[in-house]
Amino acid sequence: EGFKDLSENDLVVHVEHGVGRYMGTRVIEHRDGESEFLTLLYSGGDKLYVPMDDVERIHKYRGGGVAPPLDRLGGNRWSKTKNNVKKSLQGIARDLVRLYSERSAAQGHAFSAEGAFDHEISAGFGFEETPDQEQAIRTVLEDMERSRPMDRLICGDVGYGKTEVALRAAARAISAGKQVAVIVPTTLLAHQQSLRIAAGSRRDALALQE
Predict the structure, then answer these.
(1) Measured distance CA(37)–CA(39) in Å, rounded
(2) Residues 5, 9, 60, CA angle at the centre, nearest 5°?
(3) Per DSSP, what are the bridge partners of residue 193?
(4) pTM for this model (two decimals)
(5) 76 CB contacts (<8 Å, ≥6 apart)?
(6) How far apart are the first and last CA of the chain?
(7) How many whole angstroms separate alpha carbon 114 and alpha carbon 9?
């Protein structure tokens, strides 16, 4: 993101000086000639002229809600803000390290490498899996074969087959005698998924409830 994405009066954040307001550019003469500078307005009417070589130190303010007050050049509020954020991030990092440590130590159910319903559900798909689907299905099932709880998120656009990945995992769990809940946002989708599972399995082998 460069300064060309900025409009006059946009709030910006300077790495060293904090929140200011972008007031456009200005050509300033100096002993080596003249150069173009970005003009930032700060509290009290102070202005900071930033040379084009330092534009990477400025970012457009992206926060939501109420606009923050302008910082004061030479003040200590911005440094305090950065220190508070740093401490907060360090706390989050410690929590994440502890969380991942607990997850890696936790014991879960290791599913078998083959499930009784694997072939039926796969054969009932009706389409050829895409390479990404195959990889996602394979990695999810490999996760299920490990003795620690799965920690995986499948992301994809609408219509790219995420549900099929979930159903393959559900089939593996059902094969092990587990109960599976497939949660979807609408009743129509719930009905569609119920039909998909029923089409790919023996009707007398599964108990489906919507």
Answers:
(1) 6
(2) 40
(3) none
(4) 0.55
(5) none
(6) 48
(7) 62
pLDDT tens per residue across span 184-200: 888 888 888 777 666 65
Q: Tell me the one-letter amino acid at 123.
A: A
Q: What's the CATH class of domain 3-74?
A: mainly beta
Structure tokens at 190: 């719930």
What is the DSSP code (8-state) at residue 75? -
CA distance 179 to 175: 10
The tens digit of pLDDT for each residue in 113-158 reads: 887 777 777 777 778 888 999 999 999 999 999 988 888 899 988 8
What is the spatial order of strands in the sheet that 47-51 belongs to?
47-51, 33-41, 18-30, 11-14, 58-60
How far apart (Å, rounded) are the C-alpha atoms in residues 194 and 107?
31
Q: Where are the domains of the chain?
A: 3-74, 76-105, 118-199
